From TrEMBL:
Signal peptide: none annotated. Belongs to the class-I pyridoxal-phosphate-dependent aminotransferase family. This is Aminotransferase. Residues 35-384 form the Aminotransferase class I/classII large domain. SUPFAM superfamilies: PLP-dependent transferases. Its EC number is 2.6.1.-. Keywords: Aminotransferase, Transferase. Its cofactor is pyridoxal 5'-phosphate.
Amino acid sequence: MPETFVKSERLRLLPPYLFAEIDRKKKAAIAAGRDIINLGVGDPDKPTPEPIIRSLQHHVENPSFHQYALDQGSPELRTVIAAFFSRRYGVALDPEAEILPTIGSKEALAHFPLAVIDPGDLGLVPDPRYPVYRSSVQFAGGEPYIMPLVPELQFRPDLDAIPGDVWKRAKLMFLNYPNNPTAGSADLSFFERVVGLAKEHGFVVAQDAAYSEVYFDEPPPSILQVPGAKDVAVEFHSLSKTFNMTGWRVGFAVGGAPLVAALAQVKANTDSGIFTAVQMAAVTALEQYETLTPPIRDLYKERRDALVSGLKRLGWDVPTPSATFYVWIPCPAGLNSTAICSKLLEEANLVTTPGLGFGDAGDGFFRMALTVDTPRLEEAVDRIAKLSF
Ligand SMILES: *Cc1c(COP(=O)(O)O)cnc(C)c1O
């Protein structure tokens, strides 16, 4: 045993944590008693709706739920997910084979490459991105191939720019629509194109739908609406953002039976299911989706309109997001993303997220989260109005 611990190569391969410096400044500012408006957090600020809390309170009393949950998830939850998917997307799913409840979607996204990738395979990951896609490809021994998201293509990757030898080695492609951090969207024809490429080149698509229910215009599609998509695609859903349930840890993966079974096999060797009382609360949430989610969407819409119209009044070129609770803003001329975020923190006590933290292609942008109340967003705009650029 060497005297000093050396961590594994897979951890040493991870990119440095780019938010560390901003985090340090933020903590120092809060400690100094400054009135910080935190627009950095991708976590709903409102509590989970009452009926879901009541449901958990009821089910937590049931001693049969105090034991290990079923690895494949409770049959009630899988049945309710199938009904939800049929109502919301018009897609029929077999609750026995095509649905797997997960401990939130992050763990499932992180585990999925272990089911798909062998050492040396390519995993295609967007840039900017939720960091898990890249690290999970690396953890599985694969090589990340970076797909820049193109602002002019609604923050989709330029599929025509990906070379033939990359397609040959590709085993997995991560997508995330509606997109964090760019708020970009995908339509069914984009998903059709991706499914076609996956079939042609023999790779699997992992579509992260964490924000599928946080929308302000047309409801975003599921990739499984593409005929034949189940052969090549798995979609990862989450109750976290939809129902203000980030702390509860419940989501689900849906797709073709062999793909879902492969993820289930990884998870059977990793975790022991989701607390069944939480799964029963998830049943309540999805059963009441039609009444519980409109107020949540309405609140983000009000905040989005306040922030975007306020920034536009100041002459900022801010696209209006059609989904997610993020506003993705081009940096003012002459500033990169870390510079603008430092300026906003130091001169206006605003915490925002530099695009660089999500990948090199994010560096021309920064992100504001709509996870504070409207008056605070208006206050944020007033503070920005006083700065000079
Ligand atoms: C929040 C988020 C998730 C993870 O949510 P869970 O709480 O793990 O279900 C996944 N993807 C993106 C892009 C997110 O922003």
